[in-house]
């Protein structure tokens, strides 16, 4: 049974999310879904890849999210001459101590902004693999833990742009979701001219949440309930990508885990302590599409990974309330998705 103090705590957490959302939306006009997805990835302990053409606000979104939280922030400008040691750190000989001393690299921060990540060589990009998956860096046989919360927000231009390298499959798979900002509407662009015409709104952006509050939010998201039928639904969606004729590489088991974590975070953002099939459906394209590799024939037919995922969503049966009832012995309707009659977070 939920006590009054627990309900008050959940209300406080919901208020924290709203403060961060309002802060970011004050900089990124007219893109509420993009901001929501960014917060979803943050609360799901994932990493975000922002891919779009130059000039639409990719770096602005990453900076706004980082500055809205009172935590350590480092930016890495990925260039062709960037070295792996610039990211992870390097051991330097200390003459006084007569021993090697580890100098941490830019990855040792709670939010790391990787700007134009696909302009560095694959060798340099691979320096992020361990830190993004295991939240640690191993150097000269010594392992160094990264701070919590830890999130990489990377931006990249489309591969067709000059001077870019395609991200290795192993690195793309470590990003929980990929989002494209897109061009603003005429009204939003006109408002942007008024807001950004004089000074950058980032200059006045102040933190509205502390790192320890984000950790509490993450802990709350971990407690969101996901029924057995919804877990099977996520597995069915991911499994379908591995046998689809238009794909030569499907989504990995890590993708299933990321999809489930993102669905739990989305439920919490919607004020629920239980996940629904809608949470999985709405996030499937963002979480799965960037991991997939279309076949040559699909590329000739101009079939995109996003279209394939949309098709899989349409073909995969959605769990119903009766399925949930058989699995848990609960009543039909929305009660079937939780362990008890649903309550809202706050």
TrEMBL record:
Tell me the ranges covered by the ChlI/MoxR AAA lid domain, including all copies: 240-312
Q: Which family does it belong to?
A: Belongs to the MoxR family.
Q: Taxonomically, which superkingdom?
A: Bacteria
Q: Which GO terms describe its molecular function?
A: ATP binding; ATP hydrolysis activity
**Pfam families named among the record's database cross-references:** AAA_3 (PF07726), AAA_lid_2 (PF17863)
What's the protein called, per UniProt? Answer: ATPase
Biased composition range(s): Polar residues: 317-326
Q: Which residues form the ATPase AAA-3 domain?
A: 47-176
Q: Which UniProt keywords apply?
A: ATP-binding, Nucleotide-binding
UniProt xrefs under InterPro entries: ATPase_AAA-3, CbbQ/NirQ/NorQ/GpvN, ChlI/MoxR_AAA_lid, P-loop_NTPase
Keyword Transmembrane helix among record annotations = no
**Region described as Disordered:** 316-346
| Keyword set includes Nucleotide-binding | yes
């Amino acid at each position: 049974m939920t006590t009054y103090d627990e309900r008050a705590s959940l209300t406080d957490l919901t208020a924290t999310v709203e403060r961060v959302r309002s802060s970011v939306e004050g900089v990124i006009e007219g893109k509420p879904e993009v901001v929501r997805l960014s917060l979803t990835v943050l609360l799901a302990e994932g990493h975000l890849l922002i891919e779009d053409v130059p000039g639409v606000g990719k770096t602005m979104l990453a900076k706004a999210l980082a500055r809205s939280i009172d935590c350590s922030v480092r930016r890495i400008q990925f260039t062709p001459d960037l070295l792996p040691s610039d990211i992870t750190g390097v051991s330097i000989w200390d003459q006084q101590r007569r021993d090697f001393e580890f100098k941490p690299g830019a990855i040792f921060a709670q939010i790391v902004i990787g700007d134009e990540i696909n302009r560095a060589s694959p060798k340099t990009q691979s320096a992020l693999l361990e830190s993004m998956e295991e939240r640690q860096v191993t150097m000269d046989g010594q392992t160094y833990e990264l701070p919590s919360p830890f999130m990489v927000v990377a931006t990249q231009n489309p591969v067709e742009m000059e001077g870019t390298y395609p991200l290795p499959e192993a690195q793309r798979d470590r990003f929980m979701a990929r989002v494209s900002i897109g061009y603003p509407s005429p009204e939003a662009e006109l408002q942007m001219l008024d807001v950004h015409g004089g000074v950058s709104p980032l200059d006045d952006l102040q933190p509205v949440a502390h790192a320890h509050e984000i950790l509490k939010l993450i802990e709350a998201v971990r407690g969101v309930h996901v029924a057995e039928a919804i877990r099977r639904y996520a597995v069915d969606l991911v499994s379908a990508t591995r046998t689809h004729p238009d794909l030569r590489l499907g989504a990995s088991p890590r993708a299933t885990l990321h999809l489930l974590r993102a669905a739990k975070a989305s439920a919490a953002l919607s004020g629920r302590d239980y996940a629904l099939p809608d949470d999985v459906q709405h996030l499937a394209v963002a979480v799965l599409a960037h991991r997939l590799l279309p076949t040559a024939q699909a590329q000739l037919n101009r079939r995109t990974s996003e279209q394939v995922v949309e098709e899989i969503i349409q073909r995969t049966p959605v769990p119903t309330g009766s399925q949930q009832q058989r699995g848990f012995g609960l009543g039909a309707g929305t009660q079937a998705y939780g362990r008890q009659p649903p309550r809202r977070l706050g």
